[in-house]
Structures are given as structure tokens and as C-alpha cells.
Amino acid sequence: MAVFPRVACRANACFRASVAVSFPSVRTSFRASQQSVVTTHRHLHATTQSRSPPSAAPTALAAGGAADVQSEMDLRLQSVVADFHAPVRFAIAYGSGVFLQKGYKPAAIGSKDAPMVDFLFGVTHPEHWHSLNIRQNRHHYSALAYLGSKVVSNVQETMGAGLYFNPDVEVAGVRIKYGVVSMDRLIRDLHDWETLYLAGRLQKPVKVLRSDARVNLANRRNLRASVRAALLLLPSEFTEEELFCAIAGLSYTGDFRMKMGENPHKVFNIVYTQMDAFRELYKPVIEDLPNVNYVSESQIVQDLDARLRAQLLQKLPQNLHDKIYLYYQRSPASNGSSTAALQEPQLSLSVASSPQLAQITEQSLGDIVRWPAISQSLKGILTAGFARAFVYAGRKLKKSFAGRSSPRKSS
């Protein structure tokens, strides 16, 4: 059984030369902004960083000497967050509206041709937050808001991945989609990968607009965990591109939208124009792991010794760890009842020695992602309203069909 992230990247590597010819200007023009973008994301690593003032552009971007167009984008994004009266504890912007992805044309933020910008807001008290926001921005909500902020908050917390999305609204002259999540729910997902919906987003480059010390610390653990999980999907030798595609693909494993609602080349498209950003995020993590080494600028090897891989398994987020062990004990390779009596470290050594470890890991990831992705999408009909949900889904399907019908090099 092939492992999805590796297959996607291996196939795309075959097109690397032709893609490089087709998109040289894209890679060149965005290299400087990627450096600035990564510095911003690294706020999530820094435990000393505190909440940024609403009106200030990210300090790291200013210090990094970003281009004028990048500075203008920062100001526009900050103005969106500042427009909300309800208190936002943690805020990021992400997606193709912020970072160029292969297949998109550069467009100024807020312009007619610009993609919708995605935001994620971490808030301390969701019910209070929605109460304030409904007063200010009632038009952002569906008819659900007529039932009050308590109902809105309950829908947010009890359905899907714990987010409440308001898509396709205009704030400060920018067309956006914003999701609201409680800080506790966000940090739990970063720690334990309850749904991978939030942790998966922060495994990719994001623009941090308001930082939080607890999120910073939790995401350091999340980034290390994503490398460990990706290594279990990869062979002894692989490229940086394959590793980054494996990491970017973790939170899409088992997601039904990859089959019917997203560009099938989405993972590669995310990584291709953001290689420098991924490298800046993950190279320090890779170099700190005992079983992984760079053998050239872009080639990596890992030691597949069972003891070292057992250590990787033991340090995985709790939810993924438990599912891998459960699937292993159900597999024919485990010899059934004989492994049930094993204690650590013998159990981890047994799992790490399994030739089906990559497939078991992928299956476990799919179990984590599948239902939250389905239920969060169904919740979108309720929270966005049928009309807006229909329009939003139509745009997604259009992009999906375009990606499937186009050659991979131009996806």
C-alpha cells in the first residue's frame, strides 16, 4: 500500500525540471518574502514572545527588511484583526491569500483578483466573544445567531474540530474567512493531535499576527511531532521536498475533501513555492534528531534501527501513538495475543520492527482526520448558511476540477 504524501511528492519530482522552467520568476520573486514569512511563523517557537499590539505589524517582518508589497500586506492583515471589537488572544493568517501557491497568480491583497484570506482567531471565552461579535458583525453569521451566542458557542465546541467559521465576508476592505477556536482547544490539539485540524494548520507556514506564549510552546512540540510522524512514512533515503510534502500531507490523510473538494495537487502546491519557508521551520528540528542526517544540501537519510524508531513512536502525540499501537495489535504481523502481554520497551520495539509500520501510521492518521473533517464541513452549512456554504463549496469544487483536468506542472 503506497503512502499518500510520499507518492504525491515522488510523482511531482518527475515534473520538477519542467516546473522549474515554467515558474522561475515565481520562485525568485517570492524567495525574499518567504524568508520574512518564516521568521514570522517562528514566533510560534519563541517562548519569550508575548501578544503583539493590534496595530503593530509583526516585528520580525520589519526587522527582516521585507519588500514594500510585503509591508503593505502586513498592515492590511493587521487592520483586519484590529477591526474586531471582541478580544482576540492569538491570530494567524494563512493560505493562498497570504502565501503564493503554485497555480495562483500574484495579486495584491484586497484586490478583485486576490484569493480569499484565511484567518484563525484563538479566544479565551468563545461565548463572550461571539456575543460581542454578533453585536458588531451580525451580517457575518447565519440565522443561527438569532438563537444567541450560547448556542453559537455550543455549536462551535461540540461539533467538528471545535472551530466556528464565517466564510466570504469583507472586513477592512479584505475578503476573508475567519475561524474562531478556544485557546484551550487549540493547545490540546497541538499537544495531542485530537483532530489534527488545528495542529495541521500550524505545521505549515503561517503569518502570526498576534502571538501567545502557551501556543508558542505547544507548537514547538507540534513541529517536532510532525517530523517524527513523517519519518515513519518515509524510507531510509529521501529528499527535503519529500519530507516537507509528507509533513504538509499529514493533516490531509483521510480527508474526504482531497478526493472531491480540493485540488488533488494541493500538498505539492503548498510546498513547491514555500520550500525555503519549510526549510527554515524544520531544518533545526531535523538536525536535532538522533536518527536523521543531511548527506547533501537536499538529501536526507534516516537510521531505521528498531530502537531509534521505537523512540520516535514513544514521543508521538498521544492520540496518534495510541491508534498506531491499536492497529498494530490488530494486524496479522503482531501475532495477536502475544503482543498484548508485552510491556515497554518491548512493545515499542515490536511495533517499530513491523514492515507495515508506514501503512499502520497512515491508517492511524486517517482515523484522526476523517471524521473531524467531515463533521466540520457539515457544520459549515449550519454556521455559514446554505447560500454562502453553497457558493463557497462551488468555488472549491471549481478549483478541484481545474486541478484534476490540468497537467500537474501547471496545477
TrEMBL record:
Its main location: mitochondrion. Its cofactor is Mg(2+). It is found in: Mitochondrion inner membrane. The gene is TAM41. Belongs to the TAM41 family. Keywords: Lipid biosynthesis, Lipid metabolism, Magnesium, Membrane, Mitochondrion, Mitochondrion inner membrane, Nucleotidyltransferase, Phospholipid biosynthesis, Phospholipid metabolism, Transferase. This is Phosphatidate cytidylyltransferase, mitochondrial. It comes from Geranomyces variabilis. One of its GO terms (cellular component) is mitochondrial inner membrane. GO terms for molecular function: phosphatidate cytidylyltransferase activity. Pathway: Lipid metabolism; Phospholipid metabolism; CDP-diacylglycerol biosynthesis; CDP-diacylglycerol from sn-glycerol 3-phosphate: step 3/3. Its EC number is 2.7.7.41.
